[in-house]
Amino acid sequence: MLDQIKGLHHVTSMAGNAKTNNQFFTDTLGLRRVKKTVNFDSPDVYHLYYGDEIGTPGSVMTYFPFGKMPRGRPGTGEVGTTVFSVPEGALAYWTDRLAAKGVDGIKADESFGQKRLHFAGPDGDGLALVEVKDDPRQAWTHGGVDADHAIRGFHSVSMRLRDDGATNELLKYMGYQIVDTHDGVKRLAIPGGNGADFVDLETMPNIARSMPGAGSVHHVAFAVENRAKQLEVRKALMDTGHQVTPVIDRDYFWAIYFRTPGGVLFEVATNEPGFNRDEDTAHLGEALKLPQQHAHLRSLIEQHLEPLDA
C-alpha cells in the first residue's frame, strides 16, 4: 500500500463559454482565479484555474472551455459530483446566494451525517457544498463571500461506476481506507490528508456509460509532496500493471496519468512548484501565461481567446 498520496490535488473539467465559466467560479462561488493559461495540447483554448489565495493543492478546480462543445451526458465511468467544503451553518447563505444568481439544480440533502447542497454549474456540472466542522483551511475572501461562508477547498469527489470493485481496490492500494457506507455509497478517506480527503464510490450497474462534453470532469488529480514521491508512486503503479504516462511538466506541477478500471482518468500531481512560480501572489491569474512551447504564438493566441473581463 502506498503512503505518498495526501488527498486530492485538483479536478479538471470541460466547459463551453470561457467568460461564463470564469464568471461563475469567481463571482457566484467567490473563488480566486489563480492562473490564466492555455491547454498544452490545444493552445487556442484557455486553461483556467480557480481556488484559494495561492491555489493550494486540494482547493483548485480547473477548466478547459472549448467554446461550442456540446454538453456531456451523465453516466458511469466518470466523476459525477465535485464537492466543496464550507463552514457549519453556511448552507442557508449559499441556498439564497445561488438562487439569487439564477443557479440551476439547487437541492439540499444529508449524507454521511453531513448537510449538503447540490447545484449545477453553467454547463450542467455536478457540484455540491458540504458543511464541515472546523475545517482549518483558509478561504479566499476577496471574491464577495465572507470568511463565515466561503469555500475552504475540496471535500470529496463522487465517482459513478458500473462496478466499484477494481476502483475500490486501487484506491485502497493508493492509501485510502473505507470509512463508511451510506445508501450503497462507499466513502474512502486518506489518513493524514490535506483536507480534500474523501472519495465516494457510487455503484450504478444499470446506468449507461457517460459521454464526455461540457460540464464533464476530464480527470481527478491526487496530491504528492514532490517529484521523488511521484516517481515512487509511478513505479508502484506500473509494477501492479497500470499503464502510466511518463512525468509531464505542467509548469505549476508535474503530472502522471493513468486510466482506472472503472473508466475515470486519474492524475498524480506534485505540490511543487506552485502557481506563484511565474506571478507574484498578489497578482495571480491576472496575466495570460503561456507554456514555453507556445510562447512564440502569443500574438495569435491573444487575438483568438475571448477576453474574460475580470
From TrEMBL:
| InterPro entries, sorted | Extradiol_RC_dioxygenase, Glyas_Bleomycin-R_OHBP_Dase, Glyas_Fos-R_dOase_dom, VOC_core
Family annotation (SUPFAM superfamilies): Glyoxalase/Bleomycin resistance protein/Dihydroxybiphenyl dioxygenase
Which of UniProt's keywords are assigned here?
Answer: Dioxygenase, Oxidoreductase
Q: Cite the PROSITE patterns for this sequence.
A: VOC
Please give one Gene Ontology molecular function term for this protein: dioxygenase activity
Indicate the segments forming the VOC domain, all copies.
7-132, 153-271
Instruction: From the UniProt record, list the coiled-coil ranges.
Output: none
Report the Pfam families cross-referenced here. Answer: Glyoxalase
Q: Does the keyword Cell inner membrane apply?
A: no
Name the PANTHER family on file. RING-CLEAVING DIOXYGENASE MHQE-RELATED (PTHR36110)
The name of this protein is Dioxygenase
